[in-house]
Amino acid sequence: MTEERAPAAPATGADRAFPRLDEAQIARLARHGERRRVRRGEIVVAQLRSYRLGPEAPAETYSTPRRLTVCIARVPERQTDLEGAIEIVRPGTAGEELIAVHDPGGFAGDIDLIFGRNTVVQARARDEGVLLQLPRARLLAVVQTDAELSGILMRAFILRRALLIARGGGDAVIVGSRHSPDTLRLKDFLGRNGRPYGYLDVDADAGVQELLDRFGVRVEDIPFVICRGTRLLKNPTDAEVAECFGFNRAIDERAVRDLVIVGAGPAGLAAAVYGASEGLDVLVLESGAPGGQASTSSRIENYLGFVNGISGQELAARAFTQAEKFGASVAVASGATGLDCSRRPYRVELASGGAIEARAVIVATGARYRRPEVPELARFEGTGVHYAATNLEAQLCAAAEVAIVGGANSAGQAAVFLSRDARHVHLIVRGEGLAQSMSRYLIRRIAEGLPNVTLHTRSRIEALEGTGSRLERVRWRNDATGKSETRDIQHLFSMIGATPNTAWLNGCVPVDGKGFVKTGIDLQPADLTAARWPLARSPYPLETALPAVFAVGDVRAASVKRVAAAVGEGSACVQLVHKVLQE
User: Which of 42, 183, 230, 271 has the maximum number of C-beta atoms within 10 A of its C-beta?
Assistant: First the structure.
């Protein structure tokens, strides 16, 4: 990598994020691409965008090709007609930032090319010459059929996005407050979707008032998002953010899909990867961001193959990328609101008001943590009461005292994770101990290696106190002694139980007493009779009382509530989908 460079990136990281292709590799790519002559300064990978700070500021507009592409530069020692260099810049409100320069043998592009999303950066020809371009469809063909190039390109794309996130900034700016639940929601949504963003806190950052005046907004309007330098969204919904940044490709509601998967947690994403890789036309609908409840796990250490563990968010991001790589369509902030089971193909009703027809449906909507029965809980949710322990929440708890409610693995993982930065962690459980609900490796780590974690058994939260929406104190009671203890705690993490996300099914499939979907051998004759099961055969494993409607992962009754189990069910279910589609 003689000239290629990535400012501020470690050398080893840059080598992998900005590799150089040899002539044989370029020749294989050339079979899928088209040569394009470019002028000095011409934008070759771009998005239509303008930057305008306030109504009086001039706008700077970049033209865009009709399709996202990858550009490859020539190896100069060979006699080919490809030549030139490409510089990667990130336009912003304060001007352009140079990210990297691709000299001969380098290529421009990042993970947004796989996702089909609007790109964060611009690729510009540094010199006059001829480059090679690959439209997205042909790029997907390369990564699906050429193992060597797939490894080089996908690794580079993922690492480039990681470098952009680490550097901060991007085409998104959130202006908010750490005391605002919606600020935390927006940061979580962009973060879980891998979108680099800048953040300005009205309580801490100088110059925010000038920005508010320039855009003509008030402090009462926060949080707001500056989208792509042109639009200001006041406290937008996740769906509005997804639309503005182009997270989702248009859904053709006239098409009948082979498979619609509702939910993009580990089970749903595993089904998407296997279904799409095996040639099915797959659409995944996710009401929030990819990952489901698993993405709230700070570190999963007992997942097969990851010796040092992996965060739930990183695991979800990898699975999401795999699904897109194989051609699955994933729509985020676009959940299902109903299932019309009175007809075939089935109709999945969308939050946007439309509907999608599907020959087969996989229910993978998972479960959510239950809310503790504590007075005033709702007042502090999103500011002092949390249902996830990720880096985002950990930043709020640095050097502070925190409390965690729950005795299962998710609570143990949160205790280990938060103990790194928190001054002290109180782990509050109702039972006699952790042995019945938590993995032994977590129990030992908490008991033997974390002196700043205190376990409170046979205890329950009794009261929350604070001013406005700011949690200031937590009181819990020991049921064995009857004594109560109050601590100055501003952040409480609740990780207890699970409630299945099944309301959208409209009673189409039988559920157990707790609302989890019944499948396979758990279905009783009365269940099949009530659902009017029409086939001579019995339901397949993972199949509900509706033919070709399956349930996998945490939403399924009698499932093992573990990430590995969810992934296994999602992947295995695809083989059953093939069977029912052949019936």
Answer: 271
